Amino acid sequence: MSITTVINYKRLYDITCDVTPIYSDCGKLCGSICCQPDNDNTLGMYLFPGEENMFTMKENWLQWEKRYPAEDDFPKSWDYPVYFIRCTKPCPRERRPLNCRLFPLAPHLLKDNKLILIHETLDLPYSCTLIKRKTPLRKDFIEVVAQCWQELLKDPRIRDLVAIDSLEREKEAHRPYIVWHP
Ligand code: SF4
Ligand code: SF4
Known about the structure:
3-stranded antiparallel sheet; single chain; globular; binds iron/sulfur cluster; alpha+beta
């Protein structure tokens, strides 16, 4: 039986609606590389559990796929389906999914379970200029992303996922670039 989410996605969409990582349009630095499909059209993003309710699933700028959590290395607590979406053209900005709103920051849980925010460490097929140059990000952006992650971590499935990713980084002795800590 699938669990109902405790996350108020509407609130998270509202607080992230207008805030941007830097004061200018960072897409101009890189040609909006994180919004471009790759040659094989494999780029896309997962939705958080329950986030699909923020969409009609009839958006003409999105392709939807239902994925099996075990096949995509999600923790056991995640149920089928995990939604994976690809955008086929530029999105209406106010509708963009949460993962696009939080990038290029990622959550990391320290051994004492304290949340910090780091530069995304996923192996991406493109290079984000903000990460590469360690560009100082807007303080209000960082604060809003921290608020979102504090909220998202209330869902045990999301906490499981973040905990696993954090453990992997620790095992690999990966030294992430820390952007925020409480
Ligand atoms: S890749 Fe980085 S710099 Fe480029 S648009 Fe995305 S977040 Fe901005
Ligand atoms: S949903 Fe919008 S912001 Fe996110 S990758 Fe697609 S075009 Fe870019």
